[in-house]
Amino acid sequence: MRRKFTSYFVLLFCFFLSYTPGYTYSSTYYIDGERGNDSNSGLSLKEAWQTLENANSTIFSNGDSILFRAGTSYIGQLVVHGSGSRSHPIVVDKYGEGNKPLIKAEGKFSEALLLKNVQFWEVNNLELTNYGPYQETSRWGVRVLAEEFGEMKHIRLRNLYVHDVNGWLKKSYEEGCGIYWETSGEMPSWFNGLYIENCHLVRTDRNGICGRHPFVKRAENWYPSFNVVIRGNLLVDIGGDAIKPWGCEGALVEYNIVRGARTRCDDYAAGIWPWSCDNTLIQFNEVSGVKGYKDGQAFDSDYNCTNTIFQYNYSHDNEGGFMLICTPKPDSNNVGCVGTIIRYNLSVNDQTRIFDIGGGAQNTQIYNNTIYVGKGLDVKLVSYGSWGENNWSDGMYFYNNIFYADQGAALRVVERKKRNPDGRFEVIPGTGKSSNNLFKANVYFGEILHVPDDLDGLFEDPRLIKPGSNDIMDYRLQPSSPCIDAGHSIVKSINDYFGKPIVNLPDVGWAEF
Q: Are 81 and 65 in contact (CB under 8 A)?
């Protein structure tokens, strides 16, 4: 009798629990492109669906999972519906051992994966391609879209392999991309919690990871996205821009590797850069192999941006150079390029120009960077130019940097004059009409031409461990270096690239001894 009563009580408790507010029902759906059947329920391994059709027509809810069997492939497009919750997101992932499940859009759809007007989704471990018979406008691998939606929360893309997307290469509103987020419509929309982490992108055109956000006019329509994080991604052979946050407040771009950008487009592109963003932090990234001279830099502090920080990055072998800093004249909808900080970065064998200043950037601090230019290269150390009529930079402060020109190399400070068709400039010595340029406690070694007066500047060998090496550790200082404790004090509550704190006076360069 007691045993029956106990069983009855347990059943009654479960019945009441099922009607408790906040109790979440969730289901796991299985998709197996080889062994499944679309007439199945999808709710067990033996009842797996076969194609994308049922997933595309199901409205998922809190805590649901959609699992694709490893090693399977699907032709078409995955379009998700329904939203999860903060404590119970909807998860897409793989099950079983083997390769990531592959979704091939084959150019028949705008994207292989679309998340439109949904929230609290986490998509993991898929392979996605969208390669058609010819290049097409508005073609992407993954697109996250908020259209007439307001705030769209918590979209997490992790461990995706996105490759071979032959989207439109020309810079426009229809340019292609590997992973793309976008807002649209008359009603303002924005993202809060967009995470793109540990993804691998190869041969995506035009761009790698980027956004488009029309609600960025300061005086009319300023609705930035928040908590945008782009972290730990590997991008290889990207046709245009590699990583481009757009319309964000406090975006974080860190620990990404770019190996080849602007490899196919014929217009202006760079490695990593924000547009219409405030308080962006770009750190611990490695960028190499950006092609050409129509920009072609590893990094860019662009316009309608304030307080962008580039720190602890490694840039090397980029044809267009290390850093672009640019803006047209500010107006009611463009704040210009204000308050950029470039610190504790390493540039090795970047070409054409190291710091390319185009237009009226204001209050830019460039300190404790190490710049190495290899043998035989002729590079503009700082290149000043106007964007439009009489629009020159004001306040370029260079402190505690090492400028190292190896045997036969040359570094020059110049004014840009005429732009050639390939993007390079004809130049003359000088700083043009720029104002308030201050050089203090920098080290110049090798053939450095047209350098302005430098307060406390050093013109001797900084004694790096092994300059010219491919190992970043070799660009630290030897014990006998004159750079030790020779810097100008700027910020004490900061570490160098390797995490070593600055205790008293900083050393010159990117690494404390």
A: no
How far is 24 from 405, CA to CA, in rounded Å?
A: 64
Q: For residue 253, give the nearest of 263, 243, 262 by alpha carbon.
A: 243
DSSP at 42: S
- The answer to whether 141 and 181 have CB atoms below 8 angstroms apart is no
- Domain boundaries of the chain, sorted by first residue: 32-137+149-168+177-183+192-213+226-260
Q: Residue type at 268? A: Y
At position 432, the amino acid (one-letter code) is G
Note the pLDDT tens digit of each residue in 453-475: 898 999 999 999 999 999 999 99
Strands 425-429 and 410-419 come out as: antiparallel
Q: Tokens 């570094």 — which residue?
A: 411
Which segment of 22-31, 199-208, 452-461 scores lowest on mean pLDDT? 22-31
| Residues in Cβ contact with 492 at an 8 Å cutoff, skipping those fewer than 6 apart | 502
Which residues lie across from 230 on neighbouring strands?
Answer: 196, 253
Tokens 């490759």 locate to 163
> What is the pTM assigned to this prediction?
0.94
Percent helix / strand / coil, the chain, rounded to 5: 5, 45, 50
DSSP per residue, 287-305: EEEE-SSSB-EEEEE-SSE
Nearest to 332 by CA among 246, 213, 215, 217: 217
Cβ neighbors of 5 (< 8 A, separation 6 or more) are none
Reply yes or no on whether the pLDDT at 423 is more than 70.
Answer: yes
**Helix or strand (DSSP H, E) at 12:** helix 2-18
CATH number for the region 32-137+149-168+177-183+192-213+226-260 comes to: 2.160.20.10
pLDDT for 493 equals 82
| Number of alpha helices (DSSP H) and beta strands (DSSP E) in the chain | 2, 46
For β-strands 140-147 and 410-419, DSSP reports them as: unpaired
As a whole number of angstroms, the distance between CA 505 and CA 507 comes to: 7
DSSP 463-507: -BSSTT-S-GGGGSB-TT-TTTT-SPP--SS-B-TTSPBP-SSPP
With residue 197 as reference, give the H or E element that holds it.
Answer: strand 190-197
CA 244 remoteness from chain centre:
5
Which regions of 232-361 does DSSP assign to beta strands (E)?
234-236, 243-244, 248-249, 252-254, 257-261, 281-283, 286-290, 297-301, 305-306, 309-311, 314-316, 321-327, 337-338, 341-343, 346-348, 353-359
